[in-house]
Amino acid sequence: MSEVRRKAHWAMTWAALLLCAALPCAATAALPEISPASQSISAERLQQLHDYMRKSTDANGYLGGVTLLMRNGKVVDWQAYGYSDLARRVPMRKDAIFRIYSMTKTITSVAVMMLVEDGKLSLDDPLSRHLPGFAAPQVLTGGTADEPKFREATNVPTLHALLTHTAGYPAGLKGDEQAVKLMERVDPHGASDLRDFAARMSRVPLAADPDTRFGYDGASLELLARVVEVASGQSFESFLQQRIFTPLHMRDTGFSVPTAERGHVADLTVMGKDGKLALAPTESAHHPGVPLNAYTSGAGGLYSTASDYARFAQMLLDGGTLDGQTLLSRKTVELMMRNHLTMLYPPVTQFSDAEGFGIGGYVVLDPVQRGQLGSVGQYGWSGAASTTYTIDPKQHLVAILLLQHLPREDGGRDLPRLSRPFYNLVYQALQP
To answer: Do 338 and 309 reside in the same domain of the chain?
Structure first.
C-alpha cells in the first residue's frame, strides 16, 4: 500500500472510531445470536455439520475453518474449527481474517449499483462512456497470438455486460486460448493501479461479441472498480470504506490488514506433491495481511471475516438495509438476485446448467438439476481459496463457510471440496 493510501486508510479508520465514540456502534455492530430452535433449525441436525467440519479439519484435512449461519437476521450457529496456522498450534478463532478473493466481486457489484441509484451510472452505459480506449472493441476471430485476425465487435461492452460476465473478454473457455495469450502479453494483472489496469485492458481484444456468452473473468470487475473511481471521484478503496464498510461496521474488511491484526490472518495452503499441506506460493501466504494485488482489486482483493461478510450478506437479504443504514433500495437488490442471462440460450453459466447469474452472484434456477439442497432464487458466490456464501430469500437464510486453501488445478491429489456437503448439511437442519 502506498504512503498516501495508508494515510487515507487510517484517516478513515480513525473517523469510524470517532463516530463510534459518539454513537452506540458496539451494540449495532454485534450480530444478534439466538438458539437454532428459536429459528426453526434443529440443533441435533446441526451437530452433523459440526462433526463433519471437525473431521474435515483434522490432522489429515484442512488446517481449519469458520462457519456462520443466520436465519431471520439472527446468528443461529457460529463455529471455528481446527487451526489457523500450518504448524497447527494456534486454534482457529471465530474472528479469524480470511482472503475472500472472488467474494469481493459481490461487494464491487453493490458499489456499482449504489452509483446507479445515485444517478451517476446506468447499466446500459457503454464502458467507453467512463473509460477511454473502449469505443471500438475488436474480436479475435482466428489466427494465432503472433498472427491474429480481428473484426469489429457487433456491439460494445456495457456496464451490465461487465457485471454479468457477458462482455466477451477472454475467460479460459474452449477457443479462448489465443485470446488468453494476447491478454497475458498485455499483462493487466501487472498494473500498478486501476487506471493502469484499464489502460492495459483497452489493448486486449475480445474473445466473443458482448452479450453472446457467459465467460467468467476477473477483468470485468477490475474495470468496474475503475468505473467506480471515475464516477465517484474517489479511490475505489475509499468508496468502499465510506459507503459500505463503515455503515455496515465491517471493521476487519479491507485490501490489507493492519500490522497489529495480522496475527489473526489464517494461513493459506496448497497441497504439495508429497501429499502434505504447504504454504501457498503467494506473497500474502508468506506475509499474511499484505495487499493481494498491487492495485485495489475489485475482482478478488479483499480480506474479511465471517461476521463482517455476514453483515454484508444480511444487508442484501434484508433488501439493502441493515441496522438503519440503507445502501440500496429493495427493488435494486431484487434485481441483483434475478437471472440476467436471459439473452442466452440456455440462460445459464459455464459452471452449471441449473444456475443463472444475477449481478454479483449465481442464481439457482433448479435445485434438483443442481443436485444440491437449496431453493429457487438462492444467490451467492465463492472465492478461490475455498470460501463460499449463500443468501436464500425464501428461507431467510445466510450461510458462510471460510477456509484458506487453493485447490490444485492439475487434477492431482488434493483435499475434497467442502461447499456441497456444507450446504446440504445446513439445509437438512431446517425445520418447518
So the answer is: yes
Q: Which residue has the cell 450457529?
A: 77
Residues 170, 95, single domain; the answer is no
Per the structure, the complete domain to which residue 160 belongs is given by 115-232
Over 50: is that where the pLDDT of 11 sits?
Answer: no
What's the pLDDT tens digit per position in 371-388? 999 999 999 999 999 999
**262 φ, ψ to 5°?**
-65, -20
Considering the domain boundaries, does residue 218 fall inside one? yes
Whether residue 166 is found in the same domain as residue 77? no
Residue 413 forms part of a structural domain: yes
Domain count, the chain: 2
Instruction: Say which CATH number the domain at 96 has.
Output: 3.40.710.10
Helix (H, G, I), strand (E, B) or coil at 142: strand
Residue 27 CB neighbours (<10 A): 8
**Which of 218, 209, 207, 201 has its CA nearest to residue 145?**
207
Contact 287, 281 (CB under 8 A): no
Instruction: Tell whether the model's pLDDT for residue 27 goes beyond 50.
Output: no
Please indicate, yes or no, whether residues 43 and 135 belong to a single structural domain of this protein. no
